[in-house]
Design a protein that fits this description.
- This protein is an all-alpha fold and about 140 residues long.
- It is about 60% helix and about 0% strand.
- The longest helix has 17 residues.
- The protein is globular and about 35 Å long.
- About 5% of the residues have low confidence.
Length: about 140
């Protein structure tokens, strides 16, 4: 399981993230930007970093980079103009969707949700509350 105990919820999030329309992207980015300068958000980010390191899930954190980058590079770019190899060797060659930072925050929080205080998780995930409700990530499904 590439994302440890959070593999099922991380995969569900990535699938739903890929399906978001541009209006949903705008909603997420606006909510994230409103949260970003607040003290509670900064405290939650610091706590998140500490929890990821202490949990031994750094490899799972690193495994998130590929799928997330693939999703955020696909928005607002001409996929025919760049090959995946170009993107891998020149990470700045393709502009990233503004949803990249909020998505990373939410994914990292999901990765250690079982270890992160719920208040911190809720702050870090809050930009997605309207477009990818938490409940949709934690439903029990056969085989997961």
């Amino acid at each position: 399981m590439p994302y440890g105990p959070a593999t099922a919820s991380v995969r569900r999030f990535l699938v739903q993230l890929a399906a978001l329309d541009l209006n949903a992207h705008d909603t997420v980015v606006a909510r994230f930007n409103a949260c970003l300068p607040t003290r509670p958000f900064h405290a939650a980010e610091l706590e998140l970093g500490e929890v990821v390191e202490r949990s031994g899930r750094a490899d799972a954190r690193d495994a998130l980079a590929g799928p997330l980058m693939q999703l955020v590079r696909q928005r607002d770019t001409d996929l025919d103009a760049a090959t995946p190899n170009d993107a891998e060797t020149s990470p700045n060659a393709i502009p990233l969707d503004p949803i990249a930072e909020p998505a990373l925050s939410a994914l990292l929080a999901l990765l250690v949700r079982d270890l992160l205080p719920s208040a911190s998780f809720n702050i870090l995930y809050s930009a997605f509350d309207e477009v990818i409700p938490q409940e949709s990530l934690f439903d029990s499904r056969p085989g997961e």
